[in-house]
Each structure stands twice: as C-alpha cells, then as structure tokens.
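EI: anyone free to look at a 107-residue chain?
SC: sure, send it
EI:
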Amino acid sequence: YRAIYLDETPVGFVMLSDDSLLSPPPPKPQIWLWRFMVDERYQGQGVGSIALRLLIDHVRNKGGFETLELSFVPGEGSPEGVYLRAGFRHTGRLDRDEIVLELPLTS
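SC: here you go
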C-alpha cells in the first residue's frame, strides 16, 4: 500500500498484489495493480499520470516480472485513457465486469 501525495497533501492511494513477496516466491511471479485511486478534486491535473509512471518505474526496477496487469470498470469517467497513454494494452480478457490491461515490462 502506498499513498499518493501532492506536496504534503494526500491525494490518492495505490495497492499492488506482488507474488514475489510470497515465501517462497513462485518461479514466474506476477504483479497486479490492484487499486489506483486519485481523489476527484485532483483528477485531470496530471497527478495520476505521474503517480502511475512512478509506480511503473518501481515495478520495472524491482525486476522479475514480465507484465504488470490491472483491470478497470469501463464507462464514462473510466481511467482507460490514462492507462493506455502509459503503455498498457488490452488483453482481450475480462475479470468479472472489468477489462484487463497489461503493460509489458521486458523487451
């Protein structure tokens, strides 16, 4: 769990599901962006895009993962555009009623 701050103000929340933290970790651990929230008062100001870029950098620097996956509820106000601009792509899979995206982490 991590908070997203703008200066000294908490404006959001991030939660990862990281298989590499299991004991013992699986041979091919997966990582999933489980929660990514930015207070509506700070949306549209680039806060989420910057926080997402920092999160992606953190996961890449950690190493050992092929992709970072997430899901979102489609519709008006969805974060799909933010995720696609960050390099995520559609997988064609659904998690219940949520669309699953992935970001390749290896070249």
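EI: The radius of gyration is 14 Å.
SC: 👍
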